[in-house]
Amino acid sequence: MPIVPYLPVVNEPTTEIIGGPDLYIDRGSTINLTCVVLYSPEPPAYIFWNHNDAIISYDSPRGGVSVVTEKGETTTSFLLIQQARPSDSGNYQCNPSNAQSKSVVVHVLNGEYPAAMQRGGQTFAPTSTHCFVLATSIFLALS
């Protein structure tokens, strides 16, 4: 019987946005998008965020837009947009330098609650993961 050499499993870096593919946000609240890069041999050199195919400028006249990125074995980037308005709705994309991009569609609601939050016959309800990520992001934004 021939000897087969051992080949280690190599994971490709992957990108996830927590809570996607659609997020529903109340007007006036904070949009918190969390992008996680997994299985990367080294942290990405950068992570760009796009809104409707345009790179987000953190010093735009709109104001209230910030990013916190924690690099490590797992890299996490938080995009925070304060005082959400309807013009903030649209497609957001997380673009790490060393992994595939990932998208999420944000819907800023004008009181269309709860009917607009139904997906596939099921009403959207935040999970404990959403609450943890939101609490962590708020803590990071305030510290």
TrEMBL record:
All copies of domain Ig-like, residue ranges: 13-105
Gene3D superfamilies found in the cross-reference section: Immunoglobulins
Any one Gene Ontology cellular component term annotated for this protein: neuron projection membrane
Name of this protein: Ig-like domain-containing protein
InterPro entries assigned to the protein according to its UniProt record, in alphabetical order: Ig-like_dom, Ig-like_dom_sf, Ig-like_fold, Ig_sub, Ig_sub2, Zig-8
BP terms from Gene Ontology: synapse organization
Matches recorded under SUPFAM superfamilies: Immunoglobulin
Residues forming coiled coils: none
Source taxon at top rank: Eukaryota
The species this protein was found in: Euphydryas editha
